[in-house]
Here is the input.
Amino acid sequence: MQKLFSPWRSKYINSFIKKKKTTCIFCDAIESKNDSKKLILHRGKTCFVIMNLFPYNNGHLMIVPFKHIGEMKKLDDKCALEMHKLVSTCIDALTSQMKPHGFNVGMNLGKVAGAGVEEHLHIHIVPRWNGDTNFMPVLADVKMISEDLKTTYSKLKKYFKKGK
Here is the structure.
């Protein structure tokens, strides 16, 4: 049997063991001055683009409002429009730098819908490639990520620095 090492996953696994944080991960990221450490690719006027620390696939991005909002109806038009435009920008960035064959784009509203952070709205953009699924999720409940976060961050940050 082959052994596949992914030591960065231990942070995710241990997050279920530790006491739940009382602060919001997105608000914590916003307040940080170190975008690289927090994996923030872009700060807009009302929202920002951040990489998912525990991605479903390489390049899994999220668009998050600066305001701590958990309901769609509380999102103002300016922020909603910027979030929508950033979906397109993120797709362009991922297409330019990673050449995916397609995308999953959406929101998980409520814990029952799969929201990991239900109190702070965010849109997921997950790049997909033909053949990016394999036997691992079915047999071992494991998802393989083939590129480390810092490499993906560097690729995508180049795109956002261009101001596109």
Observations:
- Residues 22-161 form a domain with the HIT family, subunit A fold (CATH 3.30.428.10).
